[in-house]
Design brief:
Elements: E1 6-9, E2 12-15, H1 18-31, H2 34-57, H3 72-103
Antiparallel strand pairs: 1-2
Helix pairs in contact: 2-3
């Protein structure tokens, strides 16, 4: 699907050419890096941890066996916490290493 972007040159506006549109798309794709996705996933998993604790305290979905050692709720909470911490750590490390590399 084609979309029309126009930008102002002087007092007139004209649509972007195909080359200019490709340059804008490349800039957007370059801006969204892997570490941003890792941060988003890590945050999502930690929100899932919070939601499992809320479900446990309000007794939502009792079949999940919240609070029991070998239940699905326990493993959902555990795996979400591990993945959330791992993805956030990897994302922040990647950002720090990239900024350090770019500053030299």
């Amino acid at each position: 699907m084609r979309f029309t972007l126009a930008f102002k040159v002087g007092k007139s506006r004209r649509p972007l050419t195909d080359t200019e549109r490709d340059m804008v798309a490349d800039a957007i794709v370059d801006h969204i890096k892997l570490w941003r996705i890792l941060l988003l996933l890590g945050s999502g998993f930690l929100i899932l941890v919070v939601l499992t604790h809320v479900a446990e305290s309000f007794h939502i979905f009792p079949a999940m066996g919240w609070g029991l050692p070998n239940s699905a709720g326990h493993y959902l909470d555990l795996v979400s916490a591990i993945l959330g911490c791992a993805f956030l750590t990897l994302g922040f490390l990647a950002i720090g290493l990239t900024r350090r590399k770019n500053s030299n």
